[in-house]
User: Which sequence fits this backbone?
């Protein structure tokens, strides 16, 4: 029998531990011969990442605790391992050195201990020419400021003889990839103030007899063309995802710079290069390519110039790999399925799930069915969003009661919300709290023009787009206009805080590991890392010419304008959005009369990885909404709010 109970008080089988479920985050899937490799996050083991190899006998974890296959290049990291003849070189988080593991043995360090802790960092590992060394990007700290960084392209011999510098072309680079005949190498590079989705250059250079790279030439890309993935098709041609026409399409690039779009169209194959080494396409042979378009697997046929979706039980694909045998491997997930490593034989349609699916998922009846919507901005733009309505088969609300809704703001801001399984959303919707995830202007997946509409308008247009979605749900009677909240982390935390201090749409908000002071969050301000040190120049404007704009938009300077209570959360080892900003914001809240709480988590970096942190964060957030929206959520401790 369905019980009548107010929204927010519904009893749910989806607990905090389910949201922090271990084994739910595979990444970096790579096919190597007859084996498939990937990393697997372990929230129940301090958030470390282990290495998994899957062969004929099934998956096998290769790195016991406390080994942690992650790296810090750009602070977001990149491909953390490369497999060569059954052995694997990987980056270890604690010291950022590269180690070699012969499965069954103990890891052996290939790189030296740096002069300062984590003073040298390696990422985007790929097999080098000849198979006797690993090529990578090396990041070296040259001083005490976060922007004191030098990068080089390096070779790391597997015999432990020491790192060799291959060369350097730009301040930022991906690892060089050798051509099949070993004569050339190709990589991507870019310079401040551009971000990699603004403009990159595809570089090609000869590999010289002394093992270094000769002078490079640029064969694709430019100030307003961003290459986001490159692979060798043969010894005289490259395949690249690039956007000279405003959309990331697949191109063939010859060594003289001739470019051919293999299937031109207004769709995105590719994405923002927040980490180094992501893959959105793989070669299938005979003019066919497996690609990820809008998160879905598709086959691009250059002979017909078409891209055709593949009908599978897996809705969302990432970390794509494949070969000319027509077998594709990837990380796959869906609205009601957790991420796992999958293998699909395109010739037979046979789909295999390779990884351990982990603990059983909640009954699908408790999972919301995402509804794609498009809201209309004041300037007439469409604002894509996904609505997750309250869903619980055991409960219904009293007649006439409208549900509270949370606007979820994705990070980046150059990113997107996605529509895969999100147990964090289900944690709320199964208790009677709706969620709407907004792809505000600046989001990816909709072409360069939509990405760039945010330029100069960060803290204004993103705020307006999110408020538009929330107001539309309230106006149509789907959400209670008096019980709207906003939540986000990182850049999403910025938009949440900016919203609470500039519009009156929301009754409250949750702000996690946020940017709060634009002036400090620059290279000169000293409160962010090198990769994003000049990001705000595109999003806001020049810090010198627009100093007043920086100050006026910063939530840190607008605490007196808060529309409602705030829950603030911060990892204390965050190098991207450092705790100093959240500390200052919390200090300004004390004594303001605004109900608030500030949770600080030791051992957490940017984003929460530890199971105990994730569980505490969700329980606190639910209690917070209950106190603000006027309900008592069962089963969670009461979060103490200060004023």
Assistant:
């Amino acid at each position: 029998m369905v019980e009548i109970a107010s929204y927010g008080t519904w009893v749910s089988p989806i607990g905090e531990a389910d949201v922090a479920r271990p084994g739910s985050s595979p990444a970096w899937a790579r096919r190597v011969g007859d084996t498939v490799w990937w990393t697997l996050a372990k929230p129940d083991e301090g958030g470390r990442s282990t290495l998994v190899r899957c062969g004929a006998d099934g998956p096998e974890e290769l790195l016991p605790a406390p080994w942690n296959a992650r790296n810090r290049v750009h602070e977001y990291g990149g491909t953390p391992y490369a497999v060569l003849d059954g052995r694997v070189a990987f980056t270890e988080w604690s010291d950022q050195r590269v180690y070699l593991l012969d499965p069954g043995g103990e890891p052996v360090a290939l790189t030296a201990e740096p002069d300062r802790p984590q003073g040298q960092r390696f990422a985007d590992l790929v097999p080098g020419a000849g198979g006797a060394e690993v090529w990578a990007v090396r990041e070296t700290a040259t001083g005490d400021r976060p922007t004191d960084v030098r990068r080089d392209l390096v070779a790391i011999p597997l015999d432990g003889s020491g790192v060799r510098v291959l060369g350097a072309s730009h301040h930022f680079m991906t690892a060089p990839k050798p051509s099949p005949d070993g004569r050339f190498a190709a990589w991507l590079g870019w310079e401040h103030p551009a971000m990699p989705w603004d403009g990159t250059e595809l570089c090609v250079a000869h590999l010289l007899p002394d093992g270094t790279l000769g002078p490079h030439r640029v064969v694709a890309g430019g100030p307003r063309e961003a290459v986001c993935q490159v692979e060798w098709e043969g010894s005289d041609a490259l395949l690249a995802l690039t956007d000279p026409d405003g959309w990331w399409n697949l191109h063939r690039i010859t060594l003289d710079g001739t470019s051919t779009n293999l299937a031109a169209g207004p769709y995105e194959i590719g994405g923002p290069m927040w980490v180094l080494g992501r893959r959105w396409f793989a070669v299938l042979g005979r003019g066919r390519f497996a690609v990820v378009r809008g998160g879905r697997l598709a086959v691009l046929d250059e002979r017909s110039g078409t891209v055709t979706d593949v009908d599978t039980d897996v809705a969302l694909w990432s970390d794509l790999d494949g070969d000319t045998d027509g077998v594709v491997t990837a990380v796959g997930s869906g609205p009601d399925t957790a991420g796992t490593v999958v293998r699909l034989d395109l010739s037979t349609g046979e789909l295999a799930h390779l990884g351990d699916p982990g603990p059983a998922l909640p009954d699908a009846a408790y999972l919301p069915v995402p509804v794609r919507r498009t809201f209309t901005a004041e300037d007439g733009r469409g604002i894509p969003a996904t609505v997750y309505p309250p869903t619980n088969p055991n409960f219904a609300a009293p007649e006439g009661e409208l549900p509270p809704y949370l606007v979820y703001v994705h990070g980046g801001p150059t990113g997107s919300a996605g529509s895969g399984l999100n147990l964090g959303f289900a944690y709320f919707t199964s208790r009677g709290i709706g969620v709407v995830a907004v792809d505000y202007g600046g989001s990816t997946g909709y072409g360069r023009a939509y990405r760039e509409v945010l330029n100069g308008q960060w803290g204004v247009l993103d705020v307006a787009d999110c408020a538009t979605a929330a107001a539309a749900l309230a106006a149509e009677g789907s959400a209670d206009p008096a019980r709207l909240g906003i939540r986000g982390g990182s850049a999403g935390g910025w938009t949440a805080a900016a919203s609470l201090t500039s519009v009156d749409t929301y009754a409250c908000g949750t702000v996690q590991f946020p940017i709060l002071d634009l002036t400090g969050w620059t290279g000169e301000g000293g409160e962010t890392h090198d990769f994003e040190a000049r990001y705000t120049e595109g999003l806001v404007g020049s810090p010198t010419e627009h100093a007043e704009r920086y100050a006026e938009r910063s939530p840190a300077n607008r605490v007196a304008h808060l529309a409602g209570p705030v829950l603030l959360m911060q990892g204390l080892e965050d190098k991207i959005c450092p705790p100093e900003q959240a500390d200052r914001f919390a200090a300004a809240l004390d004594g303001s009369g605004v109900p608030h709480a500030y949770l600080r988590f030791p051992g957490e970096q940017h984003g929460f990885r530890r199971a105990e942190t994730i569980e505490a964060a969700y329980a606190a957030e639910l209690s917070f909404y209950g106190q603000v929206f006027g309900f008592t959520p069962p089963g969670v401790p009461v979060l103490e709010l200060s004023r």
